[in-house]
């Protein structure tokens, strides 16, 4: 989720949210480059106010915030000594990463949890189509899945289920492990249950017993509105699906995406902006001699890890990954139930940051002499 920065929370320019989001000319200031420039101003101001000009600063973020953290270190090395970028898919732009990377990992997570569960989900899409083609098919599906309002087409149900599986995989955190919960529901359904009855059982296991599912009424948050603009302007992450997942194929087609965004905002997205402004292509070659002091942390069960930096680039730009980790898990609050591998991941990150700070103070001492 986007971090708090201009246009999110209370950081609203132009006097009001309505005015700030009115059109592309006011929305034009709503971007990552402006956001990290703001952070540079704020950190500098705070250090001056506290007479702490030589106090080292480490920036930390997860997901989009993780991208911002790594880019901040690269753009403002004089402001931040280092960055911890958790689950930051900085390589999921401009076709550096295969577009089906995200859904391949979602599928792998489910397959590893349960082969039968994986196969049931894989078969369910054609079953939904089959059910829809019957007389009163949509109303029967609406009844079977206890939808909050009648389905107007099968895509509503499919999109909802895709979102459930993706979210379960992305946030497959211990100790609950949502993927295991979904599959427990699917595999635990009666042996004579139909494929769609099993899918519904998985949904109930994951969401809990509710009065209805699918098309649930929800308030559109400022995060949803803001992130839609950012993905339609600069943060163009080309996620698509090929034939090798448990989902139906749905490739990312840039021309269609551009038209869709143009119809909403009147301006086309800039698919190459991120790699032009921050880099990304040949990242190991470029950053090996240029950058320093960035930790890229990833859990390999996180679908976004496919667009992350998974190998060390240099002695000080390092990758810390865990086989069973999920999205931003390492920067969440520690719990008694945290597995040992997660505790160790955090310890490694803290040790690296301490090394940066120790070296900084040694360099500062030498510099002042």
Automatic annotation (TrEMBL):
GO biological process: proteolysis
GO MF: dipeptidyl-peptidase activity; serine-type exopeptidase activity
PANTHER family noted in UniProt: LYSOSOMAL PRO-X CARBOXYPEPTIDASE-LIKE ISOFORM X1, PROTEASE S28 PRO-X CARBOXYPEPTIDASE-RELATED
Keyword rRNA-binding: no
UniProt lineage: Eukaryota, Viridiplantae, Streptophyta, Embryophyta, Tracheophyta
Family: Belongs to the peptidase S28 family.
Domain of life: Eukaryota
Species whose genome carries this gene: Quercus rubra (Northern red oak)
Record's protein name: Lysosomal Pro-X carboxypeptidase
Gene3D superfamilies: alpha/beta hydrolase, Serine carboxypeptidase S28, SKS domain
A Pfam family reported for this protein in Swiss-Prot or TrEMBL: Peptidase_S28
Entry-linked InterPro entries: AB_hydrolase_fold, Peptidase_S28, Ser_carbopepase_S28_SKS
Keyword Heme: no
Keywords recorded for this protein, A-Z: Glycoprotein, Hydrolase, Protease, Signal
């Amino acid at each position: 989720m986007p971090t708090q920065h201009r246009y999110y929370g209370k950081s609203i320019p132009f006097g009001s949210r309505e005015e700030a989001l009115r059109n592309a000319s006011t929305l034009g200031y709503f971007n990552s480059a402006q956001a990290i420039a703001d952070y540079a101003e704020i950190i500098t101001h705070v250090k001056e106010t506290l007479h702490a000009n030589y106090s080292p600063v480490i920036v930390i973020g997860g997901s989009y915030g993780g991208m911002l953290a790594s880019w901040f270190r690269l753009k403002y090395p004089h402001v931040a000594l280092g960055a911890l970028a958790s689950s930051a898919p900085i390589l999921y732009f401009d076709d550096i990463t295969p577009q089906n990377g995200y859904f391949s990992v979602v599928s792998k997570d489910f397959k590893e949890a349960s082969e039968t569960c994986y196969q049931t989900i894989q078969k369910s899409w054609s079953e939904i189509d089959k059910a829809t083609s019957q007389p009163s098919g949509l109303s029967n599906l609406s009844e079977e899945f206890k939808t909050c309002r009648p389905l107007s087409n099968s895509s509503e149900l499919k999109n909802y289920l895709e979102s459930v599986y993706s979210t379960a995989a992305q946030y497959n955190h211990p100790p609950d492990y949502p993927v295991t919960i979904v599959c427990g529901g699917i595999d635990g359904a009666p042996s004579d249950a139909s494929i769609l009855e099993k899918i519904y059982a998985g949904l109930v296991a994951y969401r809990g017993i509710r009065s209805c599912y699918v098309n649930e009424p929800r308030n559109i948050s400022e995060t949803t509105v803001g992130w839609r603009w950012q993905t339609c302007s600069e943060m163009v992450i080309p996620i698509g699906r090929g034939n090798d997942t448990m989902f139906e194929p749905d490739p990312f087609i840039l021309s269609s995406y551009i038209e869709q965004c143009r119809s909403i905002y009147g301006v086309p997205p800039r698919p190459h902006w991120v790699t032009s402004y921050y880099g990304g292509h040949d990242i190991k070659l470029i950053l090996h001699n240029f950058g320093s002091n960035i930790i890229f942390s990833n859990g390999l069960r996180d679908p976004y890890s496919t667009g992350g930096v998974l190998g060390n680039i240099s002695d000080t730009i390092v990758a810390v990954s865990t086989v069973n980790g999920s999205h931003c898990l390492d920067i969440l609050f520690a719990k008694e139930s945290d597995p040992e591998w997660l505790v160790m991941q955090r310890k490694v990150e803290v040790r690296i940051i301490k090394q940066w700070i120790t070296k900084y103070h040694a360099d500062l001492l030498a510099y002042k002499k």
